[in-house]
Amino acid sequence: MATEQSRAEVVAALTSICLEQSKWDPQRAERVALLKAACPTSVAIS
Fold first, then answer.
1. Residue 25 resides in a domain
2. Whole-prediction pTM value?
3. Total tally of structural domains belonging to the chain
4. Counting beta carbons within 10 angstroms of the beta carbon of residue 12, is it exposed (0 to 12), middle (13 to 18) or buried (19 or more)?
5. pLDDT digit string (tens) for 1-46?
6. Which superkingdom is the protein from (predicted)?
7. Domain that holds residue 9
8. pLDDT at 43
9. Are 28 and 22 in contact (CB under 8 A)?
10. Considering the domain boundaries, does residue 46 fall inside one?
């Protein structure tokens, strides 16, 4: 149970960092297009 909680906390912390850093990716538009093509029914990715 503690392992699951700590894993969830790490994922939450890293997700916000990764999302912020992705804004500076020069290939962001291309990567988003690939993600949208791979997951057409998923939640909106911008």
1. yes
2. 0.49
3. 1
4. exposed
5. 788 889 999 999 999 998 899 889 999 999 889 988 888 776 555 5
6. Bacteria
7. 2-38
8. 58
9. yes
10. no
d(CA 20, CA 45) in angstroms, rounded, equals 14
The DSSP-derived string for 23-46 is: TT-TTHHHHHHHHHHH-TTSS---
For residue 22, give both structure tokens. Answer: 């992705």
What pLDDT does residue 15 have?
92
* Residue 4: HSE in the Cβ half-sphere, 13 Å Cα cutoff: 1
Cα–Cα separations (whole angstroms), residue 43 to 2, 7, 28: 29, 23, 17
Q: Please tell me the total number of residues recorded for the chain in this structure.
A: 46
Interior angle at CA 7, CA 9 and CA 3, nearest 5: 120
Residue 45 lies in a domain: no
Structure tokens given for 10? 């790490």
